[in-house]
Design a protein that fits this description.
The chain is 50% helix and 21% strand. The protein is α/β, with parallel strands linked by helices and 655 residues long. The strands form four sheets. It has an eight-stranded mixed β-barrel, surrounded by four helices. Strands 2-1-5-4-3 form a five-stranded antiparallel β-sheet. The radius of gyration is 52 Å and the shape is elongated. The termini are far apart.
């Protein structure tokens, strides 16, 4: 309409110039309209302005009136307004064309519905995604796409979000025309009119069915065993952690069972891995067949399965299931022409009796399974929590002792040994102590039993010998020439390289005569090979080191050790000496040991001499050498010189 009015004004404007001059202008106006190009409109406006001005001067009359001027000005104003309107319309048309192109060619499926959910527009991607034609969709209710995968609660929450926030985003499972379901990542937004009233809903979605399928495959690969389809270790741990929580909540028990097929490596070596795989598949079915529906069966690798038995009122409730498992795994399995006899070893840990986390429960059941293997296979064993606690305490003690050795917390105390007849100091016995940073000075009985038979005891034993040799060297420089004796355990002296290790330690201190070092062996020590120990002692004596038999009379092999071991000195155990003045039996034992020593031509020394009376009685029995609290208590090395200078033989012993 505006273009038509403009053309009339253009014609009126150009009449003074004639039809020939106005025709090009009219043609340009038409071209501008047809091509929707605002550049032509601007050109026409400029040309019209030029022609208008020229018309003033080229008219035949040559007169200019106010009416003509006003007429021409109004014409120009209309021309310019028309041009601007044409430009705005063209820009709006381009935006609409762009929006329509985006709508049509968008990768996302787009659906526009009325506020009452009837479909009013869809794009080609939406048609492709749903399988419906445009004609089938337009005017239909959008609910036609719903599947049965979501509850009414889901849709209620979705529309509640749209009503309150104006939009919703999430995954929704819809149904195609052919009945297939597909997963759509969808965003629904409200469209409003100028009054803020919802007029339409804009739905944009992407079909992510393939991605979800791939994701599920990846999740299954991550949580399930590829061969048997059973849950793997990761999923097992998750389920077990959940079951532990449920056990706490409902005051119930669960049993964690580790089942390992016996001789499975032999099956693989004999029949091949393909047959082995078939055995695993069939065995997993046999095991699953005797479990309850709420129990969990998993394969955590190789030929090892883990079963979680739940809803147990007490631990003994699992015994019947364990018997069924043994029976199920004890039958032969046929693969092709091969009939393979089978059996399994089973370990069991129970919760909450074994009150640890999921991973540790599996580990404990695994330990129990190895106990079943050692017991002869084809049986089950329960994890012993009491024994495990003891082992843990033992390991903790060993760790603390090793740390103490590394941080130089061990020290040697020295107890003098004297000749009660002459007053001569014949030597000292080195006794280990632990200067604990929290508990103070600890005696050997507080920590040595924990390391007996362990490698750390060898390290501590060598540390004691090395420290004693170093102390001998220091005292020799101070003018003290007495010997130091140290205790060696049966475990240490029975090491194959004991002589070589001792020689190395002696070589570090060449200034120390080997006979200044004495080694004491407990008579109660369990010497598994007395001939080998005797040979070791002979080799040590060849180096110059002397031996004593400690705590004589407390064991069962006194005479055997006395006869077969090359010891120079016998030590009467302090338990006999301490009570010899009151107990006739202890006195008799002391007399017997002294007599045996003389018969075997061995020196004898008494431990536990706590009073002058003890020393007097021993001297009367013919025992001159002694040590004990009546002479001196064990003391640090720094106190020894002072004690030596103050030592004086008691008058009672001199008489």
């Amino acid at each position: 309409m505006l273009v038509t009015v403009s053309l009339f004004f253009y014609i009126d404007l150009l009449l003074p110039l004639g039809v020939a001059a106005g025709m090009p202008y009219a043609i340009m106006a038409l071209i501008s309209y047809w091509l929707h190009d605002f550049r032509y409109s601007i050109g026409i406006a400029i040309l019209a302005s030029i022609l208008t001005v020229a018309g003033y001067y080229l008219s035949d009359s040559g007169t200019i009136t106010w009416i003509v001027i006003v007429n021409r000005c109004l014409a120009l104003l209309v021309i310019w307004i028309t041009t601007i309107l044409v430009i705005l319309k063209l820009k709006a048309d381009k935006k609409l064309q762009l929006a329509a192109s985006v709508f049509t060619n968008a990768y996302e499926g787009i659906m526009i519905t009325y506020a009452f959910e009837l479909i009013t527009e869809v794009n080609s991607s939406f048609i492709k995604m749903t399988g419906y034609s445009r004609e089938e969709l337009i005017g239909s209710d959008s609910g036609m796409l719903k599947s049965d995968k979501h509850s009414k609660v889901f849709y209620h929450q979705m529309w509640n979000s749209i009503a309150t926030t104006g939009s919703w985003s999430g995954e929704v499972t819809n149904r195609r025309k052919n009945g297939e379901t597909f997963v759509e990542l969808k965003t629904i937004s409200c469209l409003y009119d100028e009054n803020g009233i919802v007029t339409n809903y804009l739905s944009m979605g992407t079909d992510i069915t393939v991605n979800k399928l791939h994701q599920r495959q990846m999740e299954r690969s991550a949580h399930y065993d590829q061969l048997t389809g059973l849950p793997n270790r990761e999923l097992l741990s998750e389920r077990l952690s959940h079951i532990i929580i449920q056990c706490k909540k409902h005051q119930q028990s669960s049993a964690i069972v580790v089942l390992d097929l016996d001789n499975f490596k032999l099956i693989n070596d004999t029949y091949g891995h393909d047959v082995g795989d078939q055995v695993l598949i069939k065995m997993s079915k046999c095991i699953g067949g005797v479990l309850r529906e709420w129990d969990t069966l998993s394969r955590i690798g190789g030929d090892e399965f883990v079963i979680i038995l739940t809803h147990l009122d007490q631990v003994t409730d699992c015994y019947y299931a364990l018997e069924r498992l043994l029976k199920a795994t004890s039958s032969s399995i046929t693969v092709g022409n091969a009939v393979i006899p089978m059996s399994a070893s089973i370990g069991v840990a129970t919760y909450p009796e074994d009150n640890v986390d999921a991973e540790l429960l599996i580990r404990h059941a695994d330990q129990a399974m190895y106990v079943a293997k050692q017991a002869g296979k084809n049986c089950y064993r329960l994890f012993d929590t009491a024994q495990d606690k003891a082992v843990n305490i033992q390991q903790e003690s060993l760790g603390n002792i090793r740390r103490a050795l590394q941080q130089q917390e061990f020290v040697l105390y020295y107890q003098p040994k004297v000749n009660m007849s002459t007053g001569e100091i014949i030597g000292v016995e080195a006794l280990i102590r632990w200067q604990h940073p929290l508990r103070g000075l600890l005696p050997p009985l507080d920590f040595l039993p924990a390391i007996e038979g362990h490698a750390i005891s060898l390290e501590i034993g060598e540390w004691v010998i090395a420290t004693a040799l170093s102390q001998i060297s220091q005292w020799h420089e101070m003018g003290f020439t007495f010997r130091i004796s140290v205790n060696v355990s049966a475990y240490q002296i029975q090491q194959i390289d004991f002589v070589e290790r001792l020689a190395v330690l002696l070589a570090v201190y060449p200034e120390v005569a080997p006979d200044c070092l004495g080694l004491e062996i407990l008579e109660t020590s369990a010497l598994s090979d007395i001939n080998q120990v005797a040979a070791t002692m002979d080799n040590c004596m060849a180096l110059g080191v002397r031996f004593a038999l400690d705590d004589f009379g407390t064991g069962y092999s006194s005479l055997t050790y006395l006869r077969r071991l090359p010891v120079r000195l016998i030590k009467i155990d302090q338990s006999f000496v301490r009570n010899m003045l009151q107990d006739p039996e202890d006195l008799a034992i002391v007399k017997s040991v002294i007599a045996l020593a003389k018969s075997f031509k061995r020196d004898v020394i008494a431990e536990g001499v706590e009073t002058i009376e003890h020393g007097t009685a021993l001297l009367q029995l013919g025992c001159e050498l002694a040590q004990g609290y009546g002479i001196a208590r064990p003391m640090p090395e720094a106190d020894i010189p002072t004690w030596v200078n103050k030592w004086k033989l008691d008058d009672a012993w001199q008489s």
